[in-house]
Design a protein that fits this description.
Blueprint: H1 3-26, H2 28-36, H3 38-53, H4 59-98, H5 100-108, H6 112-117
Helix pairs in contact: 1-2, 1-3, 2-3, 3-4
């Protein structure tokens, strides 16, 4: 392995890290992602790091490292998705209890035809 690939991967990693940091600072959606959906950014970051490592690590070793990282992240990603689902369910329950959906339907006329057809 020539040192060129090592330095190239290091420079790409440095550029990637700086670009991500600047994007997180300047783009509102990414700030929201960092605040509310951090796990997605972590998955993306680790995937990019693994892609960069592919430049300097022989594939026979790289896939083993990638498999270990992937296997270790299944539980955390599953937990994050479960918690997001619980958050969404709670939000929808609150909206129904406070009547936000019904008010919006009345104002917009959405669902009136279906309610009439159903005999409501």
């Amino acid at each position: 392995m020539s040192s060129f690939y090592i330095y190239f991967a290091l420079i790409l990693a440095l550029a990637w890290g700086i670009a991500l940091a600047l994007a997180l600072q300047r783009i509102e959606f990414l700030r929201w992602m960092a605040d509310k959906r951090t796990w997605i950014l972590v998955v993306i970051g680790v995937a990019v790091d693994l892609a960069l490592a592919w430049l300097i690590v022989p594939f026979e070793w790289w896939w083993r490292v990638a498999a270990i990282i992937g296997a270790s992240s299944v539980g955390l990603i599953g937990r994050s998705i479960y918690l997001e689902r619980a958050e969404w369910t709670e939000l929808m329950r609150t909206i129904r209890e406070e009547g936000w959906i019904g008010e919006q339907r009345q104002r917009s006329g959405i669902g009136e035809d279906r309610e009439e057809d159903a005999g409501l």
